[in-house]
Amino acid sequence: MKISALVVLAACLVVTYQAMAQVVNVRDFGAVGDGITNDSAAVEKAAAAISSSGGILYFPTGKYYLPVGSYNPYSAFKFTMKDSMTIKGDGKGITLIIGHQTVFGIMSDWAIFKFNNSNKHITIEGISFYQGMPACFTGVDGVTVKDCYINGYIAPDVLNVYGVSFWGCSNVRVLNCDFFDGYFPVYFGNTGSTRTSNALVQGCTFENKHYCNSISDNPVGVYLYYADRVQIIDNSFKNIWPKYALNDYPISYRISSGVYIGDGENSDISVIGNAFDFSDTTMGKSVDTAKSAYLVYGQGITGAFIVADNVFKGFSGSYVGGIIYTANSTAHVKPCLADWHDNQFTSCWRPVYTRARLPLAESAGFNIHHNTAFDSQIAVALFAPSNSTYQTVVNIADNIIDSTLYGIICEGADTAKASNVQVINNEVLRAVVPYRWLEYQPDKQGTAVEERMHDVPSDFLLFQNYPNPFNPSTVIDYSLPMSISVTLKLYDSLGRELATLVNERQSAGRHSVTVNANGLSSGVYYYRLQADGFQQTKEMRVIK
Fold first, then answer.
1. What average pLDDT does the segment 434-446 reach?
2. How far apart are the C-alpha atoms of 39 and 65, rounded to whole Å?
3. Which terminus, N or C, of the chain has the lesser number of Cβ atoms within 10 Å?
4. How much is the pTM?
5. First to last CA, the chain
6. Could you give the CA distance from residue 478 to residue 486 in angstroms, rounded to a whole number?
7. Whether the Cβ atoms of residue 493 and residue 525 lie closer than 8 Å to each other
8. CA nearest 84: which of 122, 56, 118, 126?
9. Which residues face 79 on adjacent strands?
10. Closest CA to 188 of 231, 241, 233
């Protein structure tokens, strides 16, 4: 009863506060909201009427034309000394704010709303923004941007550089927003030595339907440059492609990312439960050359780097990487503790990829486990730097891998070796080379190379078919510990035998059978492996 009473009291206090909060309606200061009239002067007057103790700057239903930028008299609406202030509309698609930016620019002053470190506890909610950078926050403690729609398209090849940007801010929340056609829709940076910290991006959509500017064409969904303790959870990233392919424009590289953790100073980053869909073959290719995209790109991270429970999707033949971690300069040599698990990759070029051009810190570690990778080229690739060792402990365990070329690669150069890499209990369902393990012996200066391939299995194993459910075909894998006669049969849901898939003597090792769905209706089926007293049955599903 006491707890219930406290909850009711707290709710009453919130309602009372909202009722008492100063509400300033921009219409009361002359704003027209017709999408044509310049409402900048009226909004500036309304903003000035907000007291230092805060309040609500309210934009009722309408289209407000606020042409900020260097070519207009209103550079930005700059707020100072505001505490607990909210900029509020009536909802996405109902309240619209339209900027007027006609060139590709990066000046933060071009933001429509700008807050400096004299402000705190700022909220923007329920507004759709077009043609203009919505907001820039510098040194603000307590920022929430929620339930907004932000479209960065300005003109062909011209998109906003920033959507909402945070520079040295703390306690940041970006919630349930939709970002379309942006260069850096959400950006976390620094001001001086102060990084943005304690940030959450959750429930947002990031999608590009137009390309970015041809001069600087590496679009990103969420960009972390100087940030600590950031969580990116339950978002959707879709087709954030560069305009040009990897080698068809004279710039060093042409790479896009869903989440990009840049070469500044970042620590304790979590990317959990997101969907990365870069399967659009129209935007993903230029002529016949596929473009390059790394869905989660990290470098120079200190502390935890968690990537878990995400779904990554590319398309066959694409240069879509899943998770990449690089160390390309001394600034990147950080004690990163990576834990990448329970992710699902489909048609990704390299689902898991580490490439270190310098030795990684000895206190770093990579734990790559319980992931599934289908239709990849190289499922797990670890590349050590020249003249160094894998000083970190790398654990690759309990992953399911389907690859057109390599399953797991561990390579070094010169005196590099991989003595700290553990590969345990992985299922390599398909690969031309399941394991490529190049271990360079220090005493021979890299001249001796050992190739470690599959050992003979110690027991009978029947694996789950993949994909499952399926249409039009699926693959069944099984392992035999000895040369023996084996049968593999297919049954319907009533236990009636439909087909004999295998009935012969086979050698020890791993074997595969392809099952075609022709002649099978949608539903549940069973397949059974029998050999020398061993018998095991698994279920599979057909969907048409």
1. 46
2. 6
3. N
4. 0.74
5. 55
6. 11
7. yes
8. 122
9. 115
10. 231
Q: Which residues contact 286 (CB under 8 A, 6 or more apart)?
A: 243, 244, 245, 248
Residues 6+ apart with CB under 8 A from 259: 220, 221, 222, 224, 232, 237, 271, 274, 295, 296, 297
Q: What are 232's two structure tokens?
A: 């990116």
User: Given this model, what pLDDT does residue 310 score?
Assistant: 94
φ/ψ region of 216 (left if φ > 0, alpha if ψ in -120 to 50, else beta) reads beta
**For residue 306, what are the β-bridge partners?**
270, 339
* pLDDT in the model for residue 309: 94
Residue 27, helix vs strand vs coil: helix
Residue 16 has pLDDT above 50, yes or no: no
CATH of 461-542 given 3.30.160.60, 1.10.3720.10, 2.60.40.1930, 2.30.30.280:
2.60.40.1930
User: Cα-flanking dihedrals φ and ψ of residue 332, to 5°?
Assistant: -90, -10
Spell 389-409 as b/e; 16+ CB within 10 A means b.
bbebebbbeebbbbbeebbbb
Is residue 248 scored above 80 in pLDDT? no
- Which amino acid is residue 241, in one-letter code? W
Can you read off the two tokens belonging to residue 398?
Answer: 């309990």
Q: Are strands 182-191 and 220-233 parallel, antiparallel or unpaired?
A: parallel
404 conformational bin, left if phi > 0, alpha if psi -120 to 50, beta if neither: alpha
SS3 of 28, please? helix
User: Residue 482 is encoded by which pair of tokens?
Assistant: 């000895």
Q: What residue ranges of the chain are covered by domains with CATH 2.160.20.10?
A: 14-204+224-231
Say how many C-beta atoms besides its own lie within 10 A of residue 329's C-beta.
12
Residues β-bridged to residue 89: 59
**How big, in percent rounded to 5, are the helix, strand and coil portions of the chain?**
10, 55, 35
Distance, CA of 375 to CA of 312 (rounded, Å):
12
Q: Where in the chain is the domain with CATH 2.60.40.1930?
A: 461-542
Is the distance from CB of 315 to CB of 346 less than 8 angstroms?
no
Fold that domain 14-204+224-231 belongs to in CATH: Pectate Lyase C-like (2.160.20)
Structural tokens at position 321 = 């990487």
- Of 145, 265, 280, 148, residue with least CA distance to 199: 145
Distance CA 151, CA 101 (A): 12
**How far apart are alpha carbons 62 and 213 in whole angstroms?**
30
- Tokens representing residue 400 in the block: 């399911």
Q: Which comes out higher in pLDDT, residue 69 or 249? A: 69
251: its two tokens: 């710039």
Structure confidence by residue, pLDDT tens digits, 155-204 = 665 666 788 999 999 999 999 999 988 778 999 999 888 999 999 999 99
Neighbours of 22 (CB within 10 A): 13
Residue 340 corresponds to which tokens in the numbers above? Answer: 């990448």
Q: What is the mean pLDDT of residues 84-92?
A: 93
- Tell me which residue of 173, 121, 168, 119 sits closest to 142, measured CA to CA: 121
What residue type is assigned to position 503 of the chain?
A: N
